[in-house]
Fold Zinc finger GRF-type domain-containing protein.
Amino acid sequence: MKKKFVPPVCNCGSYAILFESGTSKNPRRLFFGYSYFKNNTGHCKYFAWLDEYVASFCIDEVVQDGVSDPMKKMEERIAEIEKKMDEVKSDEKNSGVLSR
């Protein structure tokens, strides 16, 4: 059964949002973080790399489905999520929503 992608929930109960790393160690690497981390209010400091988060689902699916090629399954899942991210960005652009 195909699962609908749901972003992770922060330690405080809010949905984490996707950011792009700007560091030299992890350039352009995507990660989930607390949605209001740029505000000066205290935040829950939630952090998870997108690829590691996706891999955790693939491992669960491999165990449940008995998939013989877990790497291929993970690559397919990452491609799926990247496609959904492009769709979200396109929807935001078309609706005039500004990203934070």
Observations:
- Helices lie at 50-65, 70-95.
- The mean pLDDT is 78.
- Residues 58 and 73 are 7 Å apart (CA to CA).
- The beta strands are 17-20, 30-33, 47-49.
